[in-house]
From TrEMBL, chain A:
Keywords: Cell membrane, Membrane, Transmembrane, Transmembrane helix. The lineage of its organism: Bacteria, Bacillati, Actinomycetota, Actinomycetes, Kitasatosporales. This is Multisubunit sodium/proton antiporter MrpF subunit. One of its GO terms (cellular component) is plasma membrane. The keyword Metal-binding does not apply.
TrEMBL record, chain B:
The lineage of its organism: Bacteria, Bacillati, Actinomycetota, Actinomycetes, Kitasatosporales. The keyword Membrane applies. The chain crosses the membrane at residues 9-31. Keywords: Membrane, Transmembrane, Transmembrane helix. It comes from the Bacteria. This is Uncharacterized protein. It comes from Streptomyces capoamus.
Length: 149, 64
């Protein structure tokens, strides 16, 4: 076990437990928010594990998750749009997750060094953080201008 | 009138397709693990199909 795998274990354990608790308890809006944040927990863990095991192919899983996670959340947000209640701590959780994602991406980028791999990591980070913020805004009742379509 | 605008429309469409193709091919080259001839050929082909789909999608959204 090296530092990357240890970091992934701590990150996945702590964040996964928090997300599981959020998904399993509380009103639907809170559960949806926690479900959305699982992407922001698992994706950086995959990046850390790819670095820890020196398997660049594992990064593809993180890329897929960063793409499909927010899309799934948007489907849920659309299905349950009639009963959305903005949670009190959505904003804090969203920005905490975004900060965690950014920190992990920057750390892995520093370890990888400049090159195509770094561009790929930055793309994953952009997709992850952007998707997280957009999905959180949709869950919090945002985008009213496009809600009636 | 149409004889004057037709070449311009064609050039605009070709330019848009080329822009989509360049972006998608660049994305392909960034995301693959090893860059070799086969990957370049497959990437260029997929980017061409993707460029057609992207333009169709963009037009479908714009004409709504």
């Amino acid at each position: 076990m090296n530092g990357w795998i240890l970091a992934a274990t701590v990150e996945l354990g702590g964040g996964g437990a928090a997300a599981l608790w959020g998904v399993a308890t509380g009103p639907p809006a809170r559960r949806l928010t926690a479900q959305n944040l699982t992407t922001s927990v698992v994706c950086p863990a995959l990046l850390l594990l790819a670095q820890g095991y020196a398997r660049p192919a594992y990064v593809d899983l993180a890329l897929l998750l960063a793409l499909l996670g927010p899309v799934g959340t948007l489907v849920f947000a659309r299905l349950l749009s009639g009963e959305q209640v903005s949670g009190p701590n959505v904003r804090g959780a969203t920005w905490t997750a975004a900060g965690l994602d950014a920190a992990v991406v920057v750390a892995v980028c520093a370890a990888v060094g400049p090159g195509r791999s770094m561009v790929k990591l930055l793309l994953i980070g952009t997709l992850l953080i952007g998707g997280n913020i957009i999905a959180s805004r949709a869950l919090a009742g945002g985008f009213r201008g496009v809600g009636g379509g | 009138m149409t004889r004057r605008t037709a070449p311009r429309a064609f050039l605009l469409a070709a330019g848009e397709l080329l822009a989509w193709w360049a972006g998608l091919a660049l994305l392909w080259l960034v995301l693959i693990t090893t860059v070799d001839t086969l990957e370049r050929i497959v990437g260029a082909s997929c980017a061409a199909a993707g460029a057609l789909a992207a333009r169709a999608g963009r037009r479908a959204v714009t004409w709504r």
